[in-house]
Specification:
A hairpin with a 3-residue loop joins strand 6 and strand 7. 12% of the residues lie in helices and 49% in strands. It is mostly beta strands.
Length: 138
């Protein structure tokens, strides 16, 4: 049950990270994707579709549309040993009619510090998310 709670916390963190206003507004928080097969870059996103929310490139009009995720995480409780969580995978069908655009794999990494959390106690959650994406940019 504790592992499931950590996974939900991880997904919530990624949704919050993605729940940012679209566009290149310098006041908006953004995050970096490192990609293969499509351009890497800074993105913002609206939160309407949870983890499936498209990411909007801030340097162009391109959009990253995710259709598969793998989440990896390690939780290190304060004063304890790191616990590597098994990966979690989520997949849906790739968008239709995608022959004219590229597909790629993008990665996002981060960490969350829990302090006196009722479920986790105090510790550090380090995570990475890898997504297969459809890129609408030219």
């Amino acid at each position: 049950m504790r592992r499931l709670s950590l996974v939900f916390a991880l997904v919530a963190v990624l949704v919050v990270a993605a729940a940012l206003p679209a566009g290149a507004d310098p006041k908006a928080e953004t995050f970096e994707l490192v990609c293969e097969g499509v351009p890497s870059g800074t993105i913002t996103a609206n939160s309407g579709n949870g983890i499936w929310t498209p990411g909007f490139a801030t340097a162009s009009t391109g959009v990253y549309i995710p259709y598969s995720f793998v989440f990896n995480a390690t939780f290190t409780p304060e004063g304890g040993e790191p616990v590597v969580l098994p990966p979690d995978e989520f997949t849906k069908k790739a968008p239709k009619n995608t022959d004219s655009h590229d597909h790629g794999v993008c990665t996002f990494e981060g960490e969350v510090q829990f302090v006196d959390d009722p479920d986790f106690g105090t510790g550090l959650l380090e995570f990475s998310a890898t997504a297969e994406v459809f890129w609408t940019g030219k």
